[in-house]
DNA sequence: TAGTGGTCTAGACCACAGC
DNA sequence: CTGTGGTCTAGACCACTAT
């Protein structure tokens, strides 16, 4: 990965040092929690200045390979947090990436007063006005996702005037209410009668449900429930 | 976050520059794709050397806030990839984090020859030997996860001798076969009769299923299917 | 007190982009 | 060609840790 014989830029010194350190860790020479040689020693070993070593080790710390403690030393980081990270892209983007055709149908678009549960979720007063939309997304004419969304009018006042055929709610919200934070839950549920009909599945067929609450400017911008047919849809991702 | 009046170390210059750049971006002064001032200009503006500015901007590039092009300039990075990232922790860790009690029961531990499908998944010859374990995890005595796992003996030869009461398969595998890469899928399915019985749910109740394939030393180390009762379990996470 | 990392400088030479 | 970022140096002073 770092040896093109001619014409290419030679591997930078800081990169060679990073490779060396990672190699020793992978080979097991330096185990979890062990101290690695101090900057000055590595600088002498590689014939570079301390700043160059400093950069290499700082980058490895940012990559969670090392832990550095001022005055104490540099140590091999503890085992990586064993988390499974699943990426879920916007449905339209995902479908187009598969080379398929995406279209959507707007089933409902209305102003509604917040129930107690919605008010709690949004952090607004009960009976506050909220926007509500229900959209069915198709992949090559097969229904693939029901998007049941509630929107905070304070953050997206123009929501009711979007051309939902051209812009997905997600795209509009990303533009008017920059994403600050989000919370997600994934569940397996039986669909409601209405959802089952929209997705053209049986009421006894499991649905894969994603609930997401997005925050913007320190307020809840949107609450969305995405329903997918369990038989035809899955979330997937890769890590590493 | 960076103003403790006395005794504390003053905010480093590179950090002040990072804050300034992020502030201008958040304020909208510099929009997506715009060029920001070159290093020398910022160095003069802040009265620091170019190396200090260089560090600040390099870190912002690593954080995907900026994009830098040699010879061309430094630009505000395009809108963040709109992905939903869901973290799924090891079940034992997750249960303990909730302050609940975790225990597990080993239902099956055997050597099995790879079926064609397993052989394909593992990238080994059909009828190669694989380890197979089935473990039921409990949260406060309620069954919460069925862990159906296949393991590559080449990468974890000691798998059959683990004390599964003390070490989870995950912990063992992390130790002997350092995680290189992983692939995941999340599905909503009806459980098999056996799984339904283990989880003490009805066969018509949806299950939330996570399939994961982990790689180590350029080979498939393990293939696991995790079944959860849809009613009592969900994956969740936060982003931002 | 000695050793370590945190930060910074004032230069330098290079490769590359755009005119 | 000029301006940009990429990399590097040989020092420096500081704060912190460990002994």
From TrEMBL, chains A, B:
<keyword id="KW-0804">Transcription</keyword>
<keyword id="KW-0805">Transcription regulation</keyword>
<dbReference type="GO" id="GO:0003677">
    <property type="term" value="F:DNA binding"/>
</dbReference>
<feature type="domain" description="HTH gntR-type">
    <location>
        <begin position="11"/>
        <end position="79"/>
    </location>
</feature>
<dbReference type="InterPro" id="IPR036388">
    <property type="entry name" value="WH-like_DNA-bd_sf"/>
</dbReference>
<dbReference type="InterPro" id="IPR000524">
    <property type="entry name" value="Tscrpt_reg_HTH_GntR"/>
</dbReference>
<keyword id="KW-0238">DNA-binding</keyword>
<dbReference type="Pfam" id="PF00392">
    <property type="entry name" value="GntR"/>
</dbReference>
<dbReference type="InterPro" id="IPR036390">
    <property type="entry name" value="WH_DNA-bd_sf"/>
</dbReference>
<dbReference type="GO" id="GO:0006547">
    <property type="term" value="P:L-histidine metabolic process"/>
</dbReference>
<dbReference type="InterPro" id="IPR010248">
    <property type="entry name" value="His_ut_repres"/>
</dbReference>
<protein>
    <recommendedName>
        <fullName>Histidine utilization repressor</fullName>
    </recommendedName>
</protein>
<dbReference type="InterPro" id="IPR011663">
    <property type="entry name" value="UTRA"/>
</dbReference>
<dbReference type="InterPro" id="IPR050679">
    <property type="entry name" value="Bact_HTH_transcr_reg"/>
</dbReference>
<dbReference type="InterPro" id="IPR028978">
    <property type="entry name" value="Chorismate_lyase_/UTRA_dom_sf"/>
</dbReference>
<dbReference type="Pfam" id="PF07702">
    <property type="entry name" value="UTRA"/>
</dbReference>
<dbReference type="GO" id="GO:0003700">
    <property type="term" value="F:DNA-binding transcription factor activity"/>
</dbReference>
<dbReference type="GO" id="GO:0045892">
    <property type="term" value="P:negative regulation of DNA-templated transcription"/>
</dbReference>
